[in-house]
UniProtKB/TrEMBL annotation:
Matches recorded under SMART domains: CASc (SM00115)
Name the UniProt record assigns to this protein: Caspase-14
Similarity comment: family membership: Belongs to the peptidase C14A family.
Record keywords: Cytoplasm, Differentiation, Hydrolase, Nucleus, Protease, Thiol protease, Zymogen
PROSITE patterns: CASPASE_CYS, CASPASE_P10, CASPASE_P20
Classification of source organism: Eukaryota, Metazoa, Chordata, Craniata, Vertebrata
Length: 247
């Protein structure tokens, strides 16, 4: 690779040379198999050089409190942070998580805590939220589709404002699409978490390419529920400005 190619690559990718932090907030009560997911995540974090914190069985308010502490600790660190992962695992519905106390917390409230305006340590840095929770009660039996081509247009701006938008550099990854169930095996763990940790640990590439592989594997698989095959795939929402490499 030439020096110019290397310089271009460096400019197009996030600098991951500083601290990598991860927070897992997991309600394991009445969620058989979730400890298997926690173990898989911890192994993934170790392989990717993340310092990890795990908190279990939180009330709705507890989700907020633990994430707020995580943010404050990052803002008070003397050394810079390169990236953070926040994994949220609980029962849920569209846009909400259910605490062990039976109360709910809005996902938007948790997401907003680490925006560029609210978290100084992560300003302009990649913030990855992983949500393993149902988003409704619908079940997908799958559809037969024909290949199709799609196209679109886009507009590039020549202006380079000195400020960042509030919501850039964030990646939200949901275990399922809006309105649908997220599947979890009582022994083997969640289909999404197990697939994601395997891909992230054993494959190289930037994170959106890796998530495409996660989606491909999940989409190609058939899950059996009550003798009926089901389909499920994750949903990815990205405002990343650069390529994010974990390896």
């Amino acid at each position: 690779m030439s020096s110019e190619d290397q310089q271009s690559t460096d400019q197009d990718a996030y600098d991951m040379s500083d601290a990598r932090l991860a927070l897992t907030l997991c309600n394991t009560k009445n969620r058989a198999g979730s400890e298997t997911d926690v173990k898989a995540l911890e192994q993934m974090y170790e392989a990717l050089g993340f310092k990890s914190t795990v908190r279990r069985n939180l009330s709705a308010k507890g989700f907020w409190e633990e994430l707020e502490k995580f943010r404050k600790d990052m803002d008070q660190m003397k050394d810079p942070v390169s990236c953070c992962f926040v994994v949220l695992m609980a029962h849920g519905e569209e846009g909400i998580l259910l605490g062990v106390d039976g109360n709910t917390i809005q996902l938007s409230e948790l997401f907003s805590m680490l925006t560029n305006v609210n978290c100084r340590a992560l300003r302009g840095k990649p913030k990855v939220f992983i949500v393993q929770a149902c988003r409704g009660d619908q079940k997908d039996a799958g559809e037969v589709v024909q290949p199709a081509e799609t196209g679109g247009t886009f507009v590039l701006s020549n202006e380079h404002p000195p400020k960042l938008p509030t919501y850039t550099d964030t990646l939200h990854v949901f275990a399922t699409v809006e309105g649908y169930i997220a599947y979890r095996h009582v022994e083997d763990g969640s289909f999404f978490i197990q697939t994601m940790t395997d891909v992230f640990t054993n494959m190289e590439g930037h994170i959106l390419d890796l998530l495409t592989e996660v989606t491909r594997r999940m989409a190609n698989a058939d899950l059996m529920e009550g003798g009926k095959p089901r389909k499920v795939n994750p949903e990815i929402q990205s405002t990343l400005r650069k390529l994010l490499y974990l390896q």
